[in-house]
Amino acid sequence: MKRQSSVIIGTIGEDPHIIGSKILGRVLEGEGYKIIHIGAKCQPKEFIEAAIETKADAILISSLSGHAKNYCQDFRELCNEAGLGNIVIYVGGNVVVSERDWQDVEKEFMQMGINRVYPPGTRPPIVIEDLKKDLSLKS
Length: 139
What we know:
The protein is of the alpha/beta class and 139 residues long. Helix content is 43%, strand content 22%. It has one domain (6-138): 3-Layer(aba) Sandwich (Rossmann fold), CATH 3.40.50.280.
């Protein structure tokens, strides 16, 4: 029997906005994922510790304040150092402060080792479909 995929969800940095991540978490639960919501104003270390503790398959980082870039700069490297080299990492929301071409923003995050980057307003079904694909590649 295949184990239920588990996903860490939280809001990074000093960002107190959790509504989007809560909604996504509920939708993912409805799709059969085990959701570990670590809350708002989380530091990268908290995501990584939660992923290790729960043997998570993915980390979904939310940002509405626009400061995700600052906190995600070394995120993949920190995951690798912690033994989470294959973990799927998504970042979504308002991830940068300035108005920029989305393709440039996405490219920048992907160069940091983030698997997928979502702009504001991305609907949950898109994330679900990507998560199914990315986790199936892992197994």
